[in-house]
Specification:
This protein has 94 residues and is an all-beta fold. The chain contains no helices and seven strands. The protein has a domain at 17-68.
Length: 94
């Protein structure tokens, strides 16, 4: 049975972050469990305090909650290749 739209009870927040959009000089936004949220906006009964590339911070009656975007994925820095080793496409040497 689906919950009614007027229901005040809030479901536990799941870490279902689909997208994070960071804007310099503007409000960053995210999509959590299919719902579009912005900094200072609401997600359920919680207020969105901060959105960055690694987490979304919410605050509600039960305190602060941090949703990690990708908690188990580490991103190693890309290896640089020298210019002489880079491949060029579309050029033929004769």
């Amino acid at each position: 049975m689906a919950p009614e739209h007027g229901s005040r009870a809030s479901a536990p927040v799941e870490s279902g972050v689909q997208t994070v959009i960071l804007r310099r000089g503007g409000k960053s936004t995210a999509v959590i469990n299919g719902q579009h949220v912005a900094v200072c906006g609401k997600f359920g009964d919680k207020r969105v305090l901060r959105i960055n590339e690694s987490e979304i911070v919410l605050k509600g009656e039960s305190g602060r909650e941090v949703i990690k975007v990708m908690p188990s994925v580490e991103k190693p820095p890309a290896k640089k290749t020298s210019a002489s080793k880079q491949r060029t496409t579309g050029t033929a040497q004769q």
